[in-house]
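Input chain follows. Return structure tokens only.
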Amino acid sequence: MRAALLLLLILTLALGADVRVDPDAQFVADFDARVADYMKLHKSAESHFPMHPTDSPSAIAKEQLAFAAEIRTARANAKQGDLFTPPIAAEFRRLISIAMQGPRAARVRKSLKSAEPVTIPLDVNQAYPSSVPLQSTPASLLLNLPHLPKGLDYRIVGRRLVLRDVNANLIIDIIPDALPLS
């Protein structure tokens, strides 16, 4: 099957057919590549600082802080827009807007309103404040967003979409005004 598809692609290109690529798909592919690069950095930091199994909350917190510091050092120049470039952020806003319309819109809005509202200042490469609840992202909204590898999650904070490293509790990137005004 793969060989047939490859042959079809080669023939199409050889015959000079106009091959169109969905530009929206290119933004998602670019985002996926940026996430993959981040995960390489994450795994490298993890190899330098292996987490030890423990039931002690203070030991877990200490290891998490050290792990986050390792990543933070590796991303010393990290800034908003490194993963969510302007075109990628625009695509995410479009995808979120789609999820906020139609039959699922009421459920998404209700879910966001029923969660504890969180409006705090956040910065890339900083810890998500442990004193602030992690507002869940509605599943129907997540269905419209690119899948993330294990260890990363999306969080809604006010109208912002936050990309967070779960193990390091570190903010990787932010899209301001990601959610449309209610």
